[in-house]
Amino acid sequence: MFGELEDMLLEPSSVSGLPGISVPMYKDPKTNLYLGLNIVANQWQEEKVLRAAYTFEQNTKWNPWLNY
Predict the structure, then answer these.
(1) In total, how many domains does the chain have?
(2) What percent of the chain has pLDDT over 70?
(3) Within a domain: residue 13?
(4) Is 42 contained in some domain?
(5) How far apart are CA 18 and CA 45, in angstroms?
(6) Domain that holds residue 27
(7) Is residue 64 part of a domain?
(8) Main-chain phi, psi angles of 66, to 5 degrees
(9) What is the per-residue pLDDT across 31-51, written as a single tens digit (0 to 9) for each?
(10) Within 13 Å of residue 56, how many CA atoms lie on the same side as its CB?
(11) Would you list the DSSP string of the chain?
(12) What is the pTM of this model?
């Protein structure tokens, strides 16, 4: 039972063996919760995932680690 519940809490990309990342892209002012952009690629394409996440962070105004 616990194993099944644990699987439900995992990202589908992790269970399937696909590289994926979640990049914060919005913060709800009412709840202070973040919404993430999920980026997934084919197996063995980790570089594409990281490059896409980096490009998103560098080219949008929503990046909590940069001061605009």
Answers:
(1) 1
(2) 71
(3) yes
(4) yes
(5) 8
(6) 2-59
(7) no
(8) -110, 145
(9) 988 888 889 999 999 999 999
(10) 18
(11) -HHHHHHHTS-HHHHHT--EEEEEEEE-TTT--EEEEEEE--TT-HHHHHHHHHHHHHHSS--TTS--
(12) 0.69
